[in-house]
Amino acid sequence: MKRLLLLLLTGLLVACSPRLAPPQITARAEYLYGEGFSSDTLSLQRDWWRLFGDTTLNRLVERALAHNRNLQVALSRIEETRHNLAVVRASFLPDIGLALSAEGNYTKATKTTQQYAAEWNLSWELPLFESLKHTSDAARAEWGQAVWNYRGVELSLAAEVASTYFTLLQYERDLLIANRTYTLRRESASLIDSLFHYGMATGVEREQALSLVYSAEADIPRYRSAVEQTRLSLSVLTGDPPMPYADEGVGLELLTDDRPESLAIGVPSELLQVRPDIMQARFALDAAAAEAGLARSNRFPSIALTAKAGVGATTIKGLTSSNPFVWNALGALTQPVFNFKRLKRSEQIAIERYKQAALNYEQTVLEAFSDVESTLSTIEAHRIETDRYTELVVAYRHILEMAYALYRNGMADYLDVIDAERTLYTAQMELVNLLAQDYINYVTLCKALGGGWRSEAKYP
């Protein structure tokens, strides 16, 4: 009989863990577009923005990490889930309390009767069939999600600050080019105006030269506004109030030789341990598994114990008299029998949610692989395009110089000069945009690679 009961209990315990198929992840041995990057173990550090060697960027990112409100909310969420885990664990321990009571009753027959008591009471619902394990696992997985959500918010914030900063450098450089072009065109227009007064240039050429001046002058307020708007965006990210626009920062050069091209990107399988969104999805999967196990546990018996012990008497003085000790205890076993399959359906719902979490995890992994591949491909394409545009700007500058020389010698029309001016101006602006985008692409790559985080976080 004892052996039969033991086998039955073992069967119930095994039945408490539903059979859940873990997701199958297949990763390539290397990235498709990783040529030119080292496939050694991922070298990215948590302060990955320092790879750019820009002290201003370092200061902005560190200020954002210290003062950004969204990041502080995510940090508070970690503390909330950590405290919740302690609450969950404590809920499976006995509740012990002290009660002091005084009671009086009156009837004609007994007159006034009094009853005084001082009792310790205990209540405890025994955590059977792994209910404690499943509940703790769910709360712990919630904590893990909060931790990796914080890391994801930090990574996104740092990437957004870096991208905004390089965009600011782009607009400042655009503004500088517009100002320089305006100055040069105004000098050129003065020259054409002098030639016009001496009859060596036509009125059409004079007006054409002035049109170039007006065109460059019209661009200046647009780029100045872009600089101001970008500075305001940076202020929001760093948690600062809006600051007035200052001219002293205009014209900072993009550091074309300091792109972190030597970054070791590792192999795709490493993303499973470093990407915050993947880790968050994995903890969500763990939470769904725990909830499914808890739903199974709820279908089995539960045992509740209550007990009281203390002293009681009909007078206060009697509480300290000899032998006033009293106690009582109660144990109850509850087994769900007939609830219209509510508990069974709840378990089936939990299992389906686990399947959804598993599919979401797989989808997150696929998107992570795609993010890295797409960014690597974009970096290579932009690198080639930037190199060609650098050569193109040099060629257009030579064309403009030759066009001016030919015009002064009466061997070319002023329309050739105008065309060369506009072409060079447009090419310079496009080159600055490409240079800024090169930096932003590396920011995107650092974000896609997980921002230097690792999964060795310890549970509280």
Characterise the protein shown here.
- The chain has 460 residues and is α+β, with helices and mostly antiparallel strands.
- It is 61% helix and 11% strand.
- The chain has 9 helices and 4 strands, in the order H-H-H-E-E-H-H-H-H-E-E-H-H.
- It has helices spanning 2-15, 55-67, 69-90, 131-197, 203-237, 271-274, 276-297, 342-408, 414-448, and strands at residues 95-107, 111-126, 302-313, 325-334.
- The chain has a 4-stranded antiparallel sheet with strand order 1-2-3-4, with no helix packed on it.
- A hairpin with a 3-residue loop joins strand 1 (95-107) and strand 2.
- Helix 4 packs antiparallel against helix 9.
- The radius of gyration is 37 Å and the shape is elongated.
- Residues 4-11 and 247-251 have low confidence and may be disordered.
| Shape annotation | elongated
* pLDDT averaged residue by residue: 80
The strands making up the biggest β-sheet line up spatially as: 1-2-3-4
Briefly note the structural class of the backbone. Answer: alpha+beta
Biggest sheet statistics: 4 strands, antiparallel
Topology pattern, helix = H, strand = E = HHHEEHHHHEEHH
- The end-to-end distance, rounded to whole angstroms, is 43 Å
Helix coverage percent of residues? 55-70%
Low-confidence stretches: 4-11, 247-251
Report the C-alpha radius of gyration, rounded: 37 Å
Number of strand segments:
4
Beta-strand proportion: 5-15%
